[in-house]
Predict the 3D structure of the following.
Amino acid sequence: MVWLDDPLAFARRLGPFWTRFSADLTASIGLSRPATAAAVAIGRSSTDLSVLAPQPGLRPTRLAVAVSGGVDSVALAVLLKLYSVLNRAVIDICIHAYTVDHAMRPESAREAAAVTNVLLNQIGVSAHSVLQLTWSPSDLARLDSAPETLARRARYSALIRAMHSDGIDTLAVAHTADDNIETFFMNLLRRRSSSCLRVIPRSGAAVPCAQETFPLGGNLRLIRPLLSCPKDFSYDVCRAANVTWFDDPTNRDPSFTLRNAVRVLIAHQDQLPQALRLSSIETVLHTVSVRRKFVRTECRSILQTLVKSGELKYDTGTGSVTWKIDNPRYLNADSDVMISLIKTIVGIVSATDSKDIPSWKVIRFLRTLLAGNNRPLTFGGVLFNPIDGLSWSLSRQPFSSSSIPIGFITTNNESILWDHRFWISCTSKQLHQTLVIKPLSASDITYFKYKSLHRIRYRQFFEQVPAKVLSTLPVIYDPICAKSLAIPTIDAEFGSGEQYKVIPRNEILFSLFNDAN
């Protein structure tokens, strides 16, 4: 690793994009005083490395990085290693690299081993793991229709599980400025006009698929410190460090994925109209990025105000929300902020992803909501029931006969995502059989009201909650004894001695409602 013999000189060779990368990474990990910025800025002699001396007592910061072996991810690993060396006087960064073997080609395992060699021997990362994916017959059958989407979900799920096991909460990925451009064109070709103006966030976003992989998975953070840098910078880094990278042959096939086709289009941008050339699109996306940051900040501020004032309340027993609407406040608010607010509140209750609801549908529904209707409304998988002129009760839309969610608990402390809303686990020390999680039925209600040990307590609960809301709650059922054991959302414990833990899937609940308590 000759390139690390003089890290300051190597950093200076990388030019202004290194400075941009370093600043973005510093902001992403919350470091206020990077040693490298000071050292490079004042032009210290490359032999004066005293500023880089490790300091005792620094708490290690563990950082995961996804490395496929492509030029961008290898360059990211090099830059993270350089950053950790240059800043070890103020922060002790331990880099754990993960390589996902998609197992789609016979040579993929050999390629993953080659990436391991590069990371350990040419870059010097602290640790490295290869995560091999397994595909079920149904997954393989669907790969032909959407290979990129399915591979992405499987890849992130494997990364999330590994990070959770290794106790790491921040993942760095190698998206560059070119990826923003590619995403713009992909959405344009898919005729998603509003999605064209979505930008990839640099940091702070939850890791994709995390909420569906394990409880509180949304607390994992994703950072993209290369997002301000072009792809050419990745090539410059790898060549300067003389490290090996690997090109996936499928990335050169424009018929394999839409992204590959877009890359061919961008490569011939001189034949495109000026409005679709990179410089024009980069300007638009920068403006959109500033605008979206404002919308997120304002939406978060309104949500915090609603929770603290009691105008927005979450009921853990039913998974429902009570929302008191102040018409003048919402009528005068920025339209994009209101769209984001509605989607966020709906997403707290819904079993579906509210982020993909078209904006025009949100605006139309908001007008209906504010028109003073006194009848139930359904939107985004959520049932809105009027309480009075200003307040609404939001609950999960009742199940259809074809979409009854069923789950199975097979081991102690195993968390099962039920109905895409609740993570449910059994904390009993003795679990001898598989338990079923199913919706609350009329026969369950009869049992809990008249035969359970806690019948008085639950009789009161059933009298207060509407039947449509009750029918969306989970019940723990013992198929061997043909007996319902508990309603876990209301922390039920019955004669079987089983105990159950429930965590809502949506991490917004924890960042908003818990902060208010």
